[in-house]
């Protein structure tokens, strides 16, 4: 209980630091931080599934869906408020994930990864062919407004940044609380031995379904935040390489739990920014080499994510 | 009626192309349990090498049938080299890891190879049309088909028969069957498992490179080639059941025909029909049409 409270306090502390930086950081850095925070929001959702040994290679589906919902909310529904757009995007992505979950919950291992990728590629294909939605160019997303106040310029970036920080840290808090519950401990058990979990009376499929839905809602929210921040959405948000990046963050996060997810996204965005500044054409090389090194040299980075606190003899 | 025939021929040709690329992927997965996400890059390397070699050779010569020798020869060399490097350099260090870690490692290879390809060949497109015009064209039902496309069909059938013969009728094939069942026991029985893993991976890489080289004359060889191919071939082998060569053939046919049908009837669905079919097949048969038998651990 004590350690839980400490992590809650640390999250609050981090939020205070992030909020304070908004006062003096230049807007490019704020955008960078906001994107990193949004990506860690996706990674938090992936963490749930990775703990159960499932690699969701298709969460770009929900990320992209959230982005498009946020973008279309203004012209189609007349919603201008960023908070409402965020809620709508998250709700819709979560609902789609809930429906898809009935299919996904039956799969494990490599098939889960492949099927989730297939689903995300369906959305990508549809968006690519939808001329009303700008085909491969996507479209411009309306400027952010908060409670009827229209923001612009640095103010817009600052407000979206602060919102992203609050939402992400709230989600991190929620995930850390969830992982401490009995249900939160079922994930690693599923990975170890699913049949025994069934014998013990828990339903692996139901837990996976629930976690899948939650991760879809989180990814949708992240997509909406990025869409409002960048002011543009395009089908690339749903391409399978985007999913790969999310998986990369989650793998990099490794054993770190929620803190790992936050740190990994910041590291990735940091490398991203540096690579873009100095060697834009070798960004993927750096990313791939790092991932390879991680997998070859630190096999525990992959599996230790699944470790429960007290080590159970196998 | 004529639309139906067009769909059939288009679907067959597209399916043949899919099978050429997917056969290597499913072979590698079947034997080594490695879902090689970098397979698309091997395909791209084959296409680039063949295009570059043909471009250099035909820069000051008229097109001739030597094109086929150059195209296939260079791609084969590229496939062997890449296969050896990736297997010995990376995959061997990861023996015994779970399928998901292995797939992630090859995903990392994809990222690395993408930039390596871009470093070597740049971002401009390479035309490689030399063999395309050599064979003339034929007319079926008022529709013109380049005969080169039928070469693709013949190549796919040849590859399929060769693999069937290799796996069913040779000693190596029986050793592979044993390894698929139980690598450890096979090693205890005196099968050189390491050598066969290497051979399998190299063969798969060569098939991918050949697929790329054969496709090069029909397209512009440009960046992004591998990423487009790999997801479609995934769909093919997942539909067929991962690790099954006949499955890959059926999957390629299903995807090829479905895609040809949508292109002619509902062009809107062209990009995603492949994945829709895959999701549909998986919903009905969770492990694809011809799954490998697996043990259930309790």
How many separate domains make up the residues of chain B? Answer: 1
Mean pLDDT of chain A: 84
Number of helices of chain B: 11
Quickly count the domains of chain A.
1
The number of helices of chain A is: 13
Q: Please list the strands of the largest sheet of chain B in the order they lie side by side.
A: 1-2
Number of strands of chain A: 4
Report helical residue fraction of chain A: over 70%
Elements of chain A, N to C (H/E): HHHHHEEEHHHHEHHHH
Largest sheet of chain A: 2 strands, antiparallel
CATH architecture of chain B: Orthogonal Bundle
The first-level CATH class of chain B is given as Mainly Alpha
For the biggest sheet of chain B, the summary is: 2 strands, antiparallel
Strand content of chain B: under 5%
Number of DSSP-assigned strands of chain B? 2
Detailed description of the structure:
The complex is a heterodimer of chains A (314) and B (298). Chain A is mainly alpha-helical. Chain A has one domain (2-240). Chain A has helices at residues 2-24, 27-51, 60-77, 82-104, 109-129, 153-179, 186-192, 194-199, 204-230, 240-253, 257-278, 283-297, 299-303, and strands at residues 139-140, 145-146, 149-150, 232-233. In chain A, the strands form 2 sheets. In chain A, strands 1-4 form a two-stranded antiparallel sheet. Chain A has a two-stranded antiparallel sheet with strand order 2-3. Chain A starts with a helix and ends in an 11-residue tail after the last helix. Chain B is an all-alpha fold and 298 residues long. Helices cover 70% and strands 3% of the residues of chain B. Chain B has helices spanning 2-32, 39-57, 66-89, 99-121, 147-169, 171-181, 183-188, 193-215, 225-240, 245-265, 273-284; strands spanning 137-140, 143-146. Chain B has a two-stranded antiparallel ribbon with strand order 1-2. In chain B, helix 1 (2-32) packs antiparallel against helix 10 and helix 9 crosses helix 10 (245-265). Chain B starts with a helix and ends in a 14-residue tail after the last helix. The chains are: A mainly alpha (314), B mainly alpha (298).
């Amino acid at each position: 209980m004590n350690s839980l409270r400490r992590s809650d306090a640390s999250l609050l502390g981090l939020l205070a630091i992030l909020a304070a930086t908004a006062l003096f950081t230049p807007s490019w850095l704020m955008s960078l931080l906001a994107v990193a925070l949004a990506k860690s929001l996706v990674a938090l959702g992936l963490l749930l599934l990775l703990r159960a040994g499932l690699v969701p290679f298709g969460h770009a589906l929900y990320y992209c869906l959230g982005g498009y919902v946020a973008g279309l909310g203004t012209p189609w529904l007349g919603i201008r408020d960023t908070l409402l757009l965020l809620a709508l995007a998250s709700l819709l992505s979560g609902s789609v994930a809930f429906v898809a979950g009935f299919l996904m919950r039956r799969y494990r291992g490599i098939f889960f990864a492949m099927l989730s990728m297939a689903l995300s590629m369906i959305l990508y294909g549809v968006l690519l062919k939808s001329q009303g939605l700008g085909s491969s160019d996507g479209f411009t997303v309306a400027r952010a407004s908060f409670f009827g106040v229209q923001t612009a310029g640095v103010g817009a970036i600052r407000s979206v940044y602060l919102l992203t920080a609050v939402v992400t840290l709230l989600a991190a808090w929620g995930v850390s609380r969830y992982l401490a519950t009995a249900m939160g401990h079922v994930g690693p058990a599923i990975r170890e031995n699913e049949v025994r979990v069934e014998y013990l009376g828990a339903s692996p499929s139901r837990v996976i379904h629930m976690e899948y839905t939650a991760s879809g809602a989180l990814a949708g929210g992240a997509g909406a935040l990025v869409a409002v921040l960048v002011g543009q959405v395009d089908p690339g948000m749903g391409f399978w390489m985007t999913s790969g990046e999310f998986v990369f963050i989650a793998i990099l996060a490794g054993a770190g739990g929620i803190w790992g997810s936050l740190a990994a996204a910041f590291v990735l965005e940091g490398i991203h920014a540096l690579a873009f500044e100095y060697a834009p054409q070798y960004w993927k090389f750096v990313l791939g080499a790092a991932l390879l090194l991680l997998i070859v040299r630190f096999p525990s980075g992959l599996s230790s994510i699944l470790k429960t606190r007290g080590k159970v003899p196998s | 009626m004529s639309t139906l025939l067009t769909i059939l021929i288009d679907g067959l040709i597209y399916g043949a192309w899919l099978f050429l690329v997917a056969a290597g992927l499913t072979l590698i997965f079947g034997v080594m349990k490695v879902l090689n996400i970098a397979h698309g890059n091997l395909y791209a390397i084959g296409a680039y090498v063949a295009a570059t070699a043909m471009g250099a050779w035909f820069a000051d010569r008229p097109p001739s049938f030597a094109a086929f020798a150059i195209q296939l020869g260079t791609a084969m060399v590229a496939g062997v080299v890449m296969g050896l490097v990736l297997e010995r350099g990376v995959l061997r260090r990861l023996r015994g890891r779970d399928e998901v870690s292995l797939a992630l490692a090859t995903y990392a290879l994809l990222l690395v190879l993408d930039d390596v390809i871009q470093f070597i060949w740049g971002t401009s497109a390479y035309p490689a049309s030399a063999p395309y015009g050599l064979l003339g064209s034929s007319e079926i039902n008022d529709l013109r088909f380049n005969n080169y496309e039928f070469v693709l069909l013949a190549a796919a059938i040849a590859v399929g028969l060769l693999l069937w013969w290799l796996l069913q009728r040779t000693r190596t094939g029986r050793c592979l069957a044993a390894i698929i069942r139980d690598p450890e026991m096979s090693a205890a029985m005196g099968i050189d498992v390491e050598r066969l893993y290497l051979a399998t991976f190299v063969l798969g890489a060569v098939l991918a490179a050949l697929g790329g080289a054969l496709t090069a004359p029909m397209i512009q060889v440009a960046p992004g080639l591998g990423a487009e191919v790999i997801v479609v071939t995934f769909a093919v082998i997942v539909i067929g059941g991962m690790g099954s060569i006949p499955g890959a053939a059926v999957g390629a046919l299903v995807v090829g025909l479905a895609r040809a049908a949508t292109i002619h009837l509902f062009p809107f669905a062209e990009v995603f029909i492949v994945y829709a079919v895959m999701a549909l097949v998986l919903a009905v048969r969770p492990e694809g049409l011809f799954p490998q038998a697996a043990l259930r651990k309790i």
